C-alpha cells in the first residue's frame, strides 16, 4: 500500500464543524501547522477516506475543503510564505520529518 | 523549459496587499477559483518568480501564502469539497482545461 504526502486546507464557517474536521485530521495522524491547515503522510486509501468523512461533516453550501496529495518531489518544492507555519503549533523538528 | 500545475492559497489581512497579490496571480495567467485561491500552469522559473514577488508584497508577520506545485498525476487526485470552486468565478469549461 503506497502512501502520499498531504496538505489539508479548509475554510469552514461554523466553529463546531471546523473543530470536528480538525479533530478528524488529528485522528488521521496529521500535524496542524496553521489555524486551518494540516499536513502529514497518509496511506492512499486513508486520503480518500478522510475526504469522504470531511464531505459528510461540512456544509457544502458555505464551507470549502482542499485535500492536496503530493509526491515527495513536488512536496519539497512547496513554497510557504509568512505565517504559513504557525511557530506555536509546529517547530523545525516536526517539519524536518516532512521536508 | 518544463512547467508545473500550481495552486496558490493565501490568507492576507490587508485589502490592498490581498488585491495586489491577486492581481499578480492574474498577471501570471492563473485562474481565480475562490476568494483567496488561484490555480493554473506556470513555467518552473515563473513559479519561483511568483513566490519571490508575493514574499516582497506581504507582511510576513501576519499573512500566509502557500504556493503548491503539482505534477499532472497528483493534480488529478486533488479533492475539492463544498465551495472549493466558486461557481461565479469558474465553470466546468475552465476547469476542464486543468482536470
From TrEMBL, chains A, B:
Needed co-factor(s): Mg(2+)
Residues annotated to bind Mg(2+): 11
Entry EC number(s): 3.1.-.-
GO MF entry, a single one: hydrolase activity
UniProt KW NADP keyword: no
GO BP: defense response to virus; maintenance of CRISPR repeat elements
Keywords: Antiviral defense, Endonuclease, Hydrolase, Magnesium, Metal-binding, Nuclease
One Pfam family, short name: CRISPR_Cas2
Entries under InterPro entries matching the protein: CRISPR_associated_Cas2, Virulence_VapD/CRISPR_Cas2
Major enzyme class: hydrolase
Function text: CRISPR (clustered regularly interspaced short palindromic repeat), is an adaptive immune system that provides protection against mobile genetic elements (viruses, transposable elements and conjugative plasmids). CRISPR clusters contain sequences complementary to antecedent mobile elements and target invading nucleic acids. CRISPR clusters are transcribed and processed into CRISPR RNA (crRNA). Functions as a ssRNA-specific endoribonuclease. Involved in the integration of spacer DNA into the CRISPR cassette.
Family recorded in the similarity comment: Belongs to the CRISPR-associated endoribonuclease Cas2 protein family.
PANTHER family associated with the record: CRISPR-ASSOCIATED ENDORIBONUCLEASE CAS2 (PTHR34405), CRISPR-ASSOCIATED ENDORIBONUCLEASE CAS2 3 (PTHR34405:SF3)
Subunit structure: Homodimer, forms a heterotetramer with a Cas1 homodimer.
Protein name in UniProt: CRISPR-associated endoribonuclease Cas2
Species for this entry: Desulfosarcina ovata subsp. ovata
